[in-house]
């Protein structure tokens, strides 16, 4: 398959960001598990330092996912670039929404909630039902899911790419399934989506880094023309 335009810089950045997402995702899962184990009751919210670490990890991962999806778009063959470009757009929407939410919660969320305003928790608390929590569900269970599903058709040659495609589809489907918890007002059901983007997706990004690392640069028409002219 032709990967014209997928430069060594795309390969290096794509591989680095994909593996960074996997590493940060692993740290996120471990931190989340420690935070849950620290609770006296399952109904209690996760406190600091675990909560702040989780917020920072989300901000970092969301930004890296955009960069990685840029590399996916560069990697895509011409006939599937419409899918990779759509995946990039959905990933930008994800990152914009979730980064805004978690930056507000991390910086001023607790001060706003403790201000005594009765309506503040409905907007700024990170628990159901609140505006912030609902928007984050939109970001991860909808836009992230669509980004993974649209990126999947890019990878279709060889066993490694096929595995990446399958994992992206599984991640996207599980993330979408998490939306079932919204009409049911049951956030335990919504945990299905968390499995998609917190457990399956990091593995997909790990293998995606391997795909990028094994891909050799194919000169485009402009480069071949330049080389032929210099040779002449």
Could you explain how this protein is built, in words?
By secondary structure, the chain is an all-alpha fold. The chain has one domain. The chain contains 9 helices and no strands. Helix 3 runs antiparallel to helix 5 and helix 6 runs antiparallel to helix 8. The longest helix is centred in the middle third of the chain and has 33 residues. It is elongated.
Arithmetic mean pLDDT: 87
Helix content: over 70%
Please give the number of β-strands.
0
Number of domains: 1
Q: What's the gyration radius in Å?
A: 20 Å
SSE diagram, text form:
Blueprint: H1 8-37, H2 50-75, H3 81-113, H4 120-124, H5 131-151, H6 158-177, H7 181-184, H8 187-214, H9 221-231
Helix pairs in contact: 1-2, 1-8, 2-3, 3-5, 5-6, 5-8, 6-8
């Amino acid at each position: 398959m032709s990967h014209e335009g997928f430069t060594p810089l795309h390969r290096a950045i794509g591989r680095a960001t994909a593996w960074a997402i996997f590493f940060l995702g692993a740290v996120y899962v471990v931190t989340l598990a420690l935070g849950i184990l620290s609770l006296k009751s399952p109904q209690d919210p996760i406190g600091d330092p675990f909560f702040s670490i989780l917020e920072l990890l989300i901000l970092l991962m969301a930004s890296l996912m955009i960069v990685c999806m840029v590399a996916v778009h560069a990697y895509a063959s011409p006939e599937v670039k419409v899918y990779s470009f759509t995946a990039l757009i959905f990933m930008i929407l994800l990152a914009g929404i979730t980064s805004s939410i978690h930056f507000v919660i991390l910086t001023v969320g607790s001060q706003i909630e403790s201000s005594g305003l009765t309506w503040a928790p409905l907007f700024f608390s990170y628990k159901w039902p609140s505006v912030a929590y609902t928007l984050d569900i939109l970001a991860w269970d909808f836009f992230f899911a669509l980004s993974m599903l649209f990126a999947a058709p890019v990878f279709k040659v060889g066993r490694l790419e096929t595995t990446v495609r399958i994992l992206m589809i599984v991640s996207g489907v599980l993330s979408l399934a998490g939306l079932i918890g919204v009409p049911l007002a049951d956030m335990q059901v919504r945990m299905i989506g968390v499995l998609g983007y917190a457990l399956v997706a990091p593995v997909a990004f790990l293998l995606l880094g391997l795909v990028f690392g094994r891909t050799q640069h194919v000169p485009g028409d402009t480069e071949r023309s330049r080389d032929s002219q210099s040779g002449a």
